[in-house]
Design a protein that fits this description.
Blueprint: E1 2-3, E2 6-7, H1 18-23, H2 33-41, E3 45-49, H3 56-67, H4 94-97, E4 105-109, H5 118-135, H6 147-157, H7 168-179, H8 181-193, E5 197-202, H9 206-214, H10 217-233, E6 238-245, E7 261-264, E8 277-278, H11 279-288, H12 295-302, E9 305-307, E10 310-313, H13 315-327, H14 344-351, H15 355-365, E11 370-374, H16 387-396, E12 401-408, E13 411-417, H17 421-441, H18 445-453, H19 456-468, H20 478-489, E14 495-499, E15 510-514, E16 521-528, H21 535-548, H22 551-557, E17 563-571, E18 574-579
Parallel strand pairs: 3-6, 3-7, 4-5, 5-6, 16-17
Antiparallel strand pairs: 1-2, 8-10, 9-10, 11-13, 12-13, 14-15, 15-16, 17-18
Length: 582
């Protein structure tokens, strides 16, 4: 990339393979000390839960590059040490560096299971497993494998074509075969290499989240439980495993009886800087691309996460932001993360919010905090069982951040807030979409009759009642109230609604122009106030503007027989409307 007449490192948008980043000379924020931390602090099985797009997939690729005894087509080991030249991990103790390139590795992503039904979902997972078998096909020529192991390996490579799986019994048989496939592959790898196997499982909860929304959650839980039990619990060939996902699924549903499991979530210390960018890494990247003056803007938009006790920035958004601003210095920040992460949970939350939750959303979006009991072991099926579960889901998946926490009895209570402007925009957009839908679904005939009858009290009551059902997200934005009121006036029988059309020497906010000349035009001038006792003053200001700008004279000049004018004033969820005296 060119910047300021100089060539700087390429920014690798969407790169998830560690080797590819290094080979293509992309900018890389060095996270290689995660290798040391996993060896020194990790358990036999370590589960990392972090929000989406915080570097989990890239981290597993980096771990694979370090640990794997990778073989080329001729069966010779590939030297991957060059991928760590100049990296922080080279300062680790010798006993850690001696582990480079020493282990067989199984790496599997479960994200392909995001499918509309159980059959397709589980068969896509089977395909991923078979592909990993194919990556280790050299085992079929190994003199170290027992005959029975080769037969099992070969049978799993020869999977049943999808079109031949016609009945439920045939599907269950195929699912049963592959539920233990990772254990079979582990045994074969250990026999050949003489070393325990490192298993890397990415996006482990994607099949579960997808199955929950698509309606086959229990079936998918059963398959994932069997897969994990055989690979991680009863696997004598296992050296170490690292699993990544967004949410900590309860032990009872997935990790049954796994005493070798260590879970590290955003609340835990020990690996807090392994995912996401910390403050110094973010500021260094901005400096490397000559964007020091953007630090404050970046902090407002993409900072605010806390992992353990470390302040963390959203790495995906930082990379996208820097890429865009390097090309165009005038480019505004955008909610990049909103387009990559599933926001269905926020949509459901907003659409189904009761009065208490609406008040909490009001408080959060205005910059306030709420306190909630935190419990990490939940399932997707439990999310909507209680308000606590919903807030926990939002907290652990990056839509809320910890401000402080306290203990009361056996419970942990976390004071939380919206992390930054990027996440706030997601809430606001969902609320705006929901409110627009409510407005479109509302029966506006009552309002339209009140407009035609000149009944100001009925008009104001209708508008206030509709506002009462929403969330006070835009209380200080006149443009919101203007657009909201205009949308309600579309379709008044015999009239066409227009906004900011020139009349007199100004532009009234909203004018209803009659289709027939015998009817008067109807003018609305909209004002807002922050205090209820100032609303009458808002009406007087509207009246004064109508008179001073001579809107009614403009209507007569257009050839209409006359007009009626109204002052409209909003304050929070209240509206008053009064007619301009003759």
């Amino acid at each position: 990339m060119f910047f300021g007449g100089e060539i700087v490192q390429k920014i690798g948008i969407g790169y998830e393979r560690y080797k590819r980043i290094i080979d293509d000379g992309c900018y890389y924020v060095d996270k290689t000390l995660l290798i040391r931390d996993i060896i020194e602090k990790g358990s036999m099985v370590t589960l990392f839960t972090r929000p989406r797009r915080f570097g989990k997939t890239l981290a597993l690729s980096m771990l694979q590059t370090f640990f794997e005894c990778e073989l080329d087509r001729d069966g010779k080991q590939v030297d991957n040490s060059r991928y760590f030249e100049g990296k922080k991990i080279l300062d680790a103790p010798t006993e850690i560096l001696d582990m480079m390139g020493r282990y067989p590795v199984i790496k599997l992503s479960l994200k392909s299971a995001k499918q509309p039904d159980f059959r397709t979902s589980v068969l896509r997972l089977r395909d991923e497993i078979v592909s990993e078998f194919g990556r280790h096909e050299y085992l079929m020529n190994s003199d170290n494998l027992e005959k029975r192991s080769k037969e099992l390996f070969d049978s799993l490579m020869a999977f049943t074509p999808e079109e031949k799986i016609r009945t439920e019994d045939e599907l269950r048989a195929e699912v049963g075969r592959y539920a233990t496939a990772l254990k079979v592959l582990s045994d074969c790898l250990k026999q050949h290499h003489g070393k325990g196997v490192i298993i890397l499982l990415d996006e482990y909860d994607v099949p579960l989240e997808n199955a929950y929304y698509e309606g086959f959650y229990d079936e998918m839980v059963g398959f994932i439980r069997s897969l994990f039990e055989s690979a991680l619990k009863t696997n004598d060939a296992l050296e170490r495993a690292v699993i990544t996902g967004c949410l900590r699924i309860s032990k009872e549903s997935i990790f049954t009886g796994m005493n070798n499991l260590q879970i590290n979530s955003i609340r835990d210390v020990g690996f807090s800087e392994g995912f996401g960018f910390n403050t110094s890494e973010t500021e260094q990247m901005l400096k490397d691309y000559g964007l020091e003056e953007k630090i404050s803007e970046v902090r407002t938009w993409y900072d605010g996460y806390v992992f353990g006790e470390t302040e963390i920035y959203n790495p995906w958004s930082i990379i996208k932001y820097v890429y865009g601003v390097v090309i165009d210095k005038k480019k505004f920040p955008e909610p990049y993360w909103a387009n990559t992460s599933s926001n269905l949970i926020i949509k459901d939350m907003v659409y189904n919010a009761d009065d208490d939750m609406k008040q909490e959303l009001d408080l959060l979006i205005s910059g306030g905090t709420i306190e909630k009991r935190v419990h990490e072991e939940i399932t997707y099926g439990d999310i909507h069982e209680s308000e606590d579960n919903l807030w926990n889901f939002l907290f652990f998946t990056g839509y809320m951040k910890k401000v402080s926490e306290r203990f009361e009895g056996e419970d942990i209570f976390v004071t939380m807030c919206i992390p930054n402007a990027e996440i706030r925009s997601i809430y606001r957009n969902q609320i705006s979409t929901w409110f627009e839908k409510r407005v479109k679904e509302a029966d506006r005939s009552v309002l339209h009759k009140a407009v035609l009858d000149g009944d100001t009290e009925a008009m104001a009551d209708y508008v206030s009642d509709l506002l009462e059902k929403t969330i006070s997200t835009f209380d200080s934005a006149e443009s919101f109230y203007h657009g909201f009121f205009l949308s309600l006036l579309y379709g008044v029988p015999g009239y066409n609604a227009r906004s900011n059309r020139e009349e007199g020497i100004g532009r009234p906010d909203i004018t209803l122009y009659p289709n027939r000349p015998k009817n008067p035009a109807i003018i609305f001038e909209v004002k807002i106030r922050k205090k209820f006792n100032e609303m009458e003053d808002g009406i007087e200001e509207a009246f004064k503007q109508i008179r001073d700008q001579r809107y009614q004279e403009g209507i007569l000049d257009d050839g209409y027989i006359g007009s009626v004018s109204y002052g409209v004033c909003f304050c929070k969820k209240t509206c008053i409307i009064e007619r301009l005296p003759e």
